[in-house]
Amino acid sequence: MTDTSAWLIGTQLRPGTQAWLLRHLFGPTGINLNLIRLPMGASDFTAQRYAYSYDDQHRGQTDPTLSQFSIAHDFPYTIPVLRQAIALAERPYVQATPWSPPGWMKTNDAMGNWGNSGRLLPQAYAPLAQYFVRFLQAYAQQGVPIAAITPQNEPGQQSTYPGMAWTATQEAGFIASYLTPALSAAHLNTRILADDGVWIGAAHFGGTLLRYPIGAGGVLPTG
Question: How confident is the prediction for the chain on average, in pLDDT?
Answer without folding.
Answer: 93
